[in-house]
Amino acid sequence: MNQPERRRQPRLRALKAGRVILPGGKSTFDCMVRNLSPVGAKVTFESTADIPPEFRLRFEDGTTHDCAVKWRNPREIGVEFLDALAS
């Protein structure tokens, strides 16, 4: 059964390398961005166990977003870009 679409903006498929930077900047995790919109993304990891509810996501081009986790499973999380809400 398909879930109803709840996103405010459609996401486009993506395959971008990224890095999660934890608050304080001392720990980072490599990740892959699998889909992307102006207000959020789906991000995959080896494991989401150590990923906190909020973090900064940096793309390989240097773009960064402050993120809040909206959903998670063992290898993927869906995030909302907090900085997109301010604009």
Automatic annotation (TrEMBL):
<feature type="domain" description="PilZ">
    <location>
        <begin position="5"/>
        <end position="83"/>
    </location>
</feature>
<protein>
    <recommendedName>
        <fullName>PilZ domain-containing protein</fullName>
    </recommendedName>
</protein>
<dbReference type="Pfam" id="PF07238">
    <property type="entry name" value="PilZ"/>
</dbReference>
<dbReference type="InterPro" id="IPR009875">
    <property type="entry name" value="PilZ_domain"/>
</dbReference>
